[in-house]
Design a protein that fits this description.
Blueprint (H helix, E strand, L loop, with lengths): L2 H30 L4 E9 L11 H7 L3 E8 L3 E7 L13 H18 L3 E7 L3 E8 L2 H13 L9 H11 L5 E6 L8 H10 L1 E8 L1 H4 L6 E5 L6 E5 L3 H25 L2 E6 L4 H12 L1
Helix pairs in contact: 1-3, 1-4, 1-9, 3-4, 5-6, 6-8
Length: 289
C-alpha cells in the first residue's frame, strides 16, 4: 500500500473512531473497565459513619483529633489489543473484510482508552507472535498502531490464540485489560492457557466473522480455498445436505468456542462483517457495568 493511501486511510479511521469514542463509548468504557483498585488520595477529619480502619493514627496524634485516609479509584489502566493477523482475516463477502472491521474496532477501543488516560499496547499474532508494541499513551502512539494494522504483513497465515495469551501473561506483569480480536479460526485447544491468563488479567474476546462462514449460498459449484493452509476444493453448494452440514459445523464450532469463554470467565461478543459493531460493543460494555 502506498504511503499516501495509508495516511488517507489512517485519517479516515481516526475520524470515525474518535467520534465513536467521544460521543458513544466515553461513559460506557469508563464504567465497564475499572482501574486496578483504590489508591490513597488525602486525609480529612473523621465524620460519623467513617470506617475506623481508615483512621490515620499519625495525623490523628499530631492534631489530637481523628483523621481518616481518603481513597479514590486508581483509574489508569494498561490496555492490550491482541490482534489476529492470520490469513483468514483477509476475507469478506458483505460490507467489508474481517481485517477492516478488526482495525476499526481496535482503533475505537484505543481512542476510548486514551480519553481515560490509559496506556495502550498491541500484540499482532498468527500462530506465533508477529509483533509487540509496548503500551504507551497519546494520539501519536495510536496513529502509529493504526498504520501498523493497515500495512502489517504477517509471516505466517495460521492462527494460534494460545500463543498470544501465553505471551501476554509473560510480558505483562501487572493486571491488564486485554481485548482479543480474532475470527477464532483455530485448530488447537487454547482453553487452559486462556483460563490461566484470565485469572491474572481482565480478558475480553471479540470475534469478527463473515456471514458466509455461517451458511453457504446456493450458487452451484464453487471453489473454496482455506486461507490459512492454501488447500483448495470444489463444493456443490446446490446440495441441500451439504449446506445443512456446513451450517451444523459452524454451530458446533461456535458452541465449543462459547464453552471455552464461559469456562475461562471471559466476556465475549461475536460480530458479523455486515453488522454495526457499535451496537455490539455497547451491549458488551453495558453487561460489564
Amino acid at each position: 500500500m502506498e504511503t499516501s493511501e495509508i495516511i488517507k486511510k489512517v485519517r479516515k479511521i481516526e475520524i470515525k473512531a474518535r467520534g465513536l469514542s467521544s460521543n458513544i463509548f466515553a461513559g460506557q468504557y469508563h464504567s465497564a473497565f475499572k482501574g486496578r483498585g483504590m489508591a490513597f488520595s488525602e486525609v480529612r477529619e473523621y465524620q460519623f459513619g467513617d470506617d475506623v480502619r481508615d483512621i490515620d493514627w499519625n495525623v490523628t496524634a499530631r492534631f489530637h483529633r481523628p483523621y481518616v485516609k481518603v481513597f479514590e479509584e486508581e483509574r489508569e489502566l494498561t490496555v492490550m489489543l491482541l490482534i489476529d493477523v492470520s490469513g483468514s482475516l483477509d476475507f469478506g463477502t458483505q460490507k467489508q473484510m474481517k481485517r477492516d472491521m478488526v482495525t476499526e474496532i481496535a482503533a475505537t477501543i484505543a481512542f476510548s482508552a486514551i480519553q481515560n488516560n490509559d496506556k495502550i499496547g498491541v500484540v499482532f499474532f498468527s500462530d506465533k507472535i508477529e509483533k509487540y508494541i509496548p503500551p504507551k499513551k497519546g494520539r501519536k502512539h495510536i496513529l502509529y498502531i493504526i498504520r501498523e494494522m493497515l500495512d502489517f504483513k504477517a509471516e505466517s497465515k495460521r492462527t494460534d490464540v494460545k500463543a498470544a495469551v501465553e505471551f501476554l501473561s509473560g510480558v505483562q506483569k501487572r493486571r491488564t485489560t486485554a481485548f482479543i480480536l480474532s475470527d477464532f479460526y483455530v485448530r488447537n485447544d487454547f482453553q487452559q492457557m486462556l483460563q490461566i491468563c484470565a485469572r491474572k488479567h481482565d480478558v475480553v474476546a471479540i470475534q469478527v466473522y463473515d456471514q458466509r462462514a455461517r451458511e453457504l449460498p446456493d450458487v452451484g459449484l464453487m471453489k473454496v480455498v482455506d486461507a490459512e493452509t492454501g488447500y483448495e476444493q470444489y463444493v456443490d453448494t446446490g446440495s441441500k445436505r451439504l449446506r445443512q452440514a456446513y451450517q451444523k459445523y459452524w454451530q458446533t464450532r461456535q458452541t465449543q468456542l462459547q464453552e471455552t469463554f464461559n469456562k475461562s470467565k471471559v466476556d465475549n461478543v461475536s460480530i458479523s462483517t455486515n453488522e454495526d459493531f457499535v451496537k455490539a460493543l455497547l451491549m458488551l460494555f453495558k453487561q460489564r457495568s
